[in-house]
Design goal:
heterodimer; A: mainly alpha; 8 helices; elongated; B: 5-stranded antiparallel beta sheet; 10 helices; 8 strands; 18% strand; disordered N terminus; Kinase-like_dom_sf (chain B)
């Protein structure tokens, strides 16, 4: 959770650099909003950090490609979260679209979600498997543990 | 169904049906945007449920797209994914692949496909330059939960014993299949042609011999002693054209115990491949993309020489 938060902040700076033009501000704001909805959704569904990171990444990519009116922003977040879950989570924990909508406390229909899902998949040309920050964290973590196993002892003393 | 067209599909002109299955239909088509080059167009129909795009479709296509980034010379190119339309009852996907004109079975037979019989290796393709390309990655399996029984039999012949026994399995199952196909390159017919799960296992043991009880996986419903204890047969009896190097490789590929089976990396380092890889390296290519690795050997001139192209 904490590492995810950290990564999110680092990411944003990359994001801003890439889009250092006029609509940067609204984009950044939109993004924050979308991400906070994803985090909020995850307090309900408790998916892995990998799924959350992927969902965030999908949102980022989609917002870069498409100018999303703010009224659809939440729908985009839910869908990216849904796609990320379908990509990474175990079959049996994936909610039905109905349950997802219910869990999101958002006034939209199942068919709206499904239409948006199709739009996002198409816009991203189905490029939906990315190496996310979490993967890097795993690698860095295992490298640390390999080379500095004494850190583990320090942790258990904490 | 072919009469139905929408804007997106007009980029492609269907020429002929290549394959048909419960998952949809594969066409040979022309890509009108790219000088009319041939493509293989796979149309998939998925029942539209409340769950939207099925997880299996998302995973498979995401994987294909990810693989695309590596542009591996032995993987068939995925050129395009189209989500053509979305009705209340059906999701229709169209995957456009690079067109390769023959599968391995056709290549080995050296003749045009006489209709798609059950005994085909359909997802290993051979280009006219002799390059091997892997296609499909179980897309057919993923989409066709009620696929025709014949296709189950197809894979049965290449299925590792631990899968048939429903024990724990992992990547060694692919090495087993490679071993089976390796034999087929020599014999131009499959090695283990079982009619059922049990029959498949018996056919395997008839050649490899019943493994020692210690090698039998734990917690499987078929007990070890339900099979007749038979001794292993010399492999060259079943693969008469095999040489010593190839035989040694084969024995390690179709080793009953998955823990002792070669890994892909180990197999690549096997002396059978050494000459071929060396000659490829000197010809400034590191990959096995020439597809000649099975036939450039002076040791045996058996496999593939009958292939037409």
């Amino acid at each position: 959770g904490e590492s995810l938060q950290k990564e999110k902040e680092q990411w944003k700076s990359v994001f801003h650099k890439k889009n250092g033009d006029g609509h940067m501000d609204s984009l950044g704001q939109h993004r924050d909003e979308a991400i906070s909805w994803i985090l909020c959704l995850n307090t309900k569904f408790h998916f892995t950090p990998e799924t959350v990171a992927l969902a965030v990444y999908l949102v980022d990519r989609f917002l870069l490609l498409v100018k999303v009116p703010s009224k659809y922003l939440r729908c985009v977040s839910i869908c990216c979260y849904y796609i990320a879950a379908k990509t990474l989570e175990e079959d049996e924990v994936i909610p039905s679209t109905g349950d997802l909508v219910k869990g999101s406390d958002y006034e939209c229909s199942v068919s709206e979600i499904l239409r948006m899902e199709a739009v996002i998949l198409n816009k991203l040309s189905w490029n939906i498997k990315y190496v996310t920050a979490i993967d890097f964290l795993h690698i860095i973590h295992s490298l640390l543990m390999c080379y500095y196993p004494q850190l583990l002892n320090g942790l258990s003393n904490m | 169904m072919t009469s139905r067209r929408d804007g997106l599909e007009q980029n492609y002109e269907e020429i002929a049906v290549i394959g048909n299955g419960a998952y949809g239909t594969v066409y040979k088509a022309r890509d009108l945007k790219n000088d009319g080059q041939f493509v293989a167009m796979k149309r998939i129909r998925i029942q539209n449920t409340e769950e939207g795009m099925p997880m299996s479709a998302i995973r498979e296509i995401a994987l294909l797209k990810q693989l695309e980034n590596y542009e591996h010379p032995n993987v068939v190119r995925l050129l395009d994914v189209r989500h053509t339309d979305h009705t209340a009852s059906e999701i229709r996907l169209m995957l456009v692949f690079e067109y390769v004109d023959q599968d391995l079975s056709t290549y080995l037979e050296g003749c045009p496909p006489p209709g798609l019989g059950p005994d085909r290796i359909r997802n290993i393709l051979v280009t006219s330059q002799g390059t091997l390309k892997v296609a499909d990655f179980g897309l057919a399996r993923v989409y066709g939960f009620q696929m025709a029984l014949t296709s189950v039999v197809v894979t049965l012949w290449y299925r590792a014993p631990e899968v048939i026994l429903q024990a724990a399995y992992a990547t060694p199952v692919d090495i087993w299949s490679c071993g089976c196909i390796f034999v087929e390159l020599f014999n131009r017919r499959p090695l283990f042609c079982g009619q059922s799960d049990i029959d498949q296992l018996s056919k395997i043991f008839d050649i490899l011999g019943l493994p020692p009880e210690d090698d039998w996986p734990e917690n499987v419903s078929l007990p070890w002693n339900s099979f007749k204890a038979v001794p292993p047969q010399p492999l060259e009896q079943f693969v008469p054209e095999i040489d010593n190097d190839a035989k040694d490789l084969l024995e390690k590929l179709i080793c009953f115990n998955p823990h002792r089976r070669l890994s892909a990396q180990e197999a690549m380092n096997h002396s059978y491949f050494r000459d071929d890889l060396d000659s490829l390296r000197t010809s400034s290519s590191l990959s096995v993309s020439e597809g000649e690795s099975f036939e450039t050997d002076g040791r045996s001139d058996t496999p593939s020489k009958h292939g037409g192209s």
